[in-house]
Amino acid sequence: MSEIPPPPVGDKWTLWGELLNNYLTRVRDKLTFKDANSRASQDGVLIWDPSEDQVVVSTDGAFKALRYGHSDHAAYYTTATYTAAAANTAYPINWENTAYEQHIDIDGTYPSRIVFEHAGIYQIDFSCELQSTNSSAKSVYIFPRINGTDIPYSTIKHSITANGESKVVSRSGIFTVSAGDYLEAIYAVTDTALKIQGSAATAFAPAAPSASIVISEVKI
Questions:
Q1: Could you report the per-residue pLDDT of 135-169, keeping only the tens digit for each?
Q2: 196, 177, 31, 197: which is closest to 118 by C-alpha?
Q3: 182 pairs with which residues across the strands?
Q4: pTM recorded for the entire structure
Q5: Cα dist. 205→134, 150, 170, 199, 212 in Å?
Q6: Model confidence over 12-33: pLDDT tens digits?
Q7: For residues 76 and 113, what is the distance between their CA atoms, to the nearest angstrom?
Q8: What does the alpha-carbon distance between residue 103 and residue 74 come to, in Å, rounded to a whole number?
Q9: Pairing state between β 120-132 and 194-196
């Protein structure tokens, strides 16, 4: 508290009580900071978590973020053409363009890694455009990795046969991450003639990115 409570004045306790009441309703103390000794043994305790930069509340034996004050989100895209050096080999997609970002960033050393500042639950929307350069049957596999680990039951598989054929594939998912975790989009093809490649602009439509990803924090 930055103010000093009003001292008693003579024998006028009623006046002093009114002054003290006004002071207490005007002044608010800071929340206690969460540290290694903080316990969530009692429900309903509000505390400030400096590691999350957020207010948390104790419930069911754990501190959970109230998630007021920020809404983490990001949108990235790439215009590069991705041609696998070898078939049946996994490669990451790099994100060199930022449309929006709030508390989510691209790693400065590894542009395939999308880094989360805050722990939470996030909806991920991914899409990419496929281009075929021969008439053989071939498939693409696209899946997410978090901290270098593949996410089970998350793969998009799509097959193309016709030469010159173009297809857009997409998928949404819900992921739980911790602060500092990173997400990557990984692809592999059964034939290197299947590429991830955007479309050029025309007289009547703008260019399309080769791949894009949109991330939105899910409020709970």
A1: 999 999 999 999 999 999 999 999 999 999 999 99
A2: 177
A3: 115
A4: 0.71
A5: 26, 36, 21, 10, 18
A6: 667 766 776 776 666 556 677 8
A7: 11
A8: 8
A9: antiparallel
